[in-house]
Design brief:
With 444 residues, the chain is an alpha+beta fold. Helices cover 46% and strands 17% of the residues. It has 19 helices and 14 strands. The strands form 4 sheets. Strands 3, 4, 5, 6 and 7 form a 5-stranded mixed sheet that branches. Strands 8, 9, 10, 13 and 14 form a 5-stranded mixed sheet that branches.
Length: 444
């Protein structure tokens, strides 16, 4: 009874095996374990051996454990590794059945640690435990409202990568002709709680053919085959077997991969690219329209706002030499101002011509107040399609920015006196209201 009490206080928890081969928890005073860890292990095993082993392998990968518990964790990690490699896992969800590999079961059976009941553990018992772990996963994912990806991310970021093929793109700064490097790897095993070990994809051919695990090799390559069916450049890499070796790439080849990231990920591939690339909003030089830099001669709805058109990168205008190089270059990925940016010369030229024409038609290089507001609000002007808007940026100039800011929040504008006719003391929010009304009057 005393030993049980100490275990509950967090001294440690171990495992022993019943004659049926099922693991049960027992107190373990040999090593100190964090109380939270002991409580987490007990809670997980209260839901069944399968759930306990699943949690050991999925969320306790770096925890200090006694030998028997470490043995069960190894079984759980192996299950998670193979589960993550199932190509159709997002669609299968609770219906997935991960086969217990005979070679792994035989190897684990030979390495059962010297714990009570170890003699009852053989390959068949381990297959039974494996099945219970699979059942536990099925119950968990059935009760989970989110996607399989979100479930795995909740367990730890490594599980979204482990067991998968990863396409890597990196800069190769030592080669001007081929300034990028491509390599396909597979995340073979855990190398710590938050890290996985990546090996060249070619090693998978050697490793799995040597282990006689043809099914696992075929499963691993399913996402690559899917991508090859959709994308010509991936099919060429597969047909020439270049996908199994490191490659030096040109900017055009790198740009093709970057643009195809959504398609690659939809096939089940993991894609790793330089931090400067944002698929949602790539770094690009944009046709920038600046509206209302100076106060207009007339205020109100009839005001005419000045506007200017230029090509800029992150708000910094490009010089004439840089502009000529962009508009007459090949496009794709271009090194500009010391970084790689995406360029579409044809699109930029069309947009520059469009807004220059608008500027000419306006006469004195001014826009009506209504048109200026349409530009700022994102409403399309004639001749600009939705795709072109991604290469366009409209900004409010200094005067218009202050005016719009004051309309949203008059507090920074300062106090105004309503006049002697008002015989009352205004509260702070009332003073702001008066200031706002004065601004509206000033703007007409």
């Amino acid at each position: 009874m005393g030993r049980q009490s100490k275990a509950q206080q967090g001294d440690g928890v171990g495992v022993e095996f019943l004659p049926s081969g099922m693991p049960v928890l027992r107190p373990d005073d040999a090593g100190q374990m964090p109380p939270r860890l002991v409580s987490a292990i007990r809670r997980s095993f209260e839901q069944g051996a399968g759930h306990g082993i699943l949690q050991l392998g999925a969320s306790m990968t770096d925890a200090p454990l006694p030998p028997g518990m470490e043995f069960l964790r190894e079984l759980g990690v192996e299950f998670m590794r193979r589960l993550c490699a199932v190509p159709d896992l997002p669609e299968m969800r609770h219906r997935v059945r991960v086969p217990a590999p005979d070679a792994v079961m035989d190897d684990l059976a030979r390495r059962v640690p010297p714990v009570s009941g170890a003699e009852y553990v053989g390959p068949d018992v381990l297959r039974t435990l494996w099945s219970l772990v699979n059942d536990a996963f099925a119950r968990e994912i059935s009760a989970f409202d989110g996607s399989v990806q979100e479930y795995l991310e909740g367990l730890g970021p490594v599980w979204t990568v482990l067991g998968k093929v990863c396409f890597h793109l990196a800069e190769n700064k030592g080669d001007r002709a081929f300034p990028f490097a491509f390599m396909a790897t597979y995340a073979s095993r855990l190398a710590g709680r938050d890290r996985v070990q990546h090996l060249p994809l070619g090693r998978a051919l050697e490793q799995y053919s040597g282990e006689g695990d043809r099914e696992r090799l075929l499963s691993l390559l399913v996402p690559v085959r899917r991508a090859a069916e959709q994308l010509d450049w991936v099919r060429q890499l597969v047909d020439t077997r270049a996908v199994f070796q490191p490659l030096a790439w040109s900017p055009a080849q790198a740009h093709t991969l970057l643009r195809d990231i959504p398609a690659l990920r939809s096939c089940g591939l993991v894609v790793r690219v330089p931090d400067w690339w944002n698929p949602a909003r790539p770094t690009r030089p944009r046709v920038t329209v600046n509206v209302g830099e100076r106060p207009p001669s007339k205020l109100g709805y009839a005001a005419m706002l000045d506007f200017s058109v230029r090509i800029a990168l992150d708000g910094e205008p490009l010089g004439e030499k840089e502009l000529r190089a962009l508009l007459h270059g090949e496009g794709g990925l271009v090194s500009l101002k010391g970084r790689w940016v995406e360029v579409d010369p044809e699109r930029l030229g069309q947009l520059l011509e469009h807004f220059s024409r608008v500027q000419e038609l306006s006469g004195d290089g001014e826009l009506g107040f209504a048109e200026g507001m349409r530009l700022l609000s994102g409403i399309q002007l004639g001749g600009i399609d939705e795709a072109a808007e991604q290469w366009t940026e409209v900004t409010a100039g200094q005067w218009l920015s202050r005016a719009l800011s004051g309309l949203r929040d008059p507090a920074p504008l300062g106090a105004v006196k309503p006049g002697k006719a008002l015989r009352a003391r205004l509260r702070p929010y009332q003073e702001q209201g008066v200031r706002w009304l004065v601004l509206l009057d000033e703007l007409g």
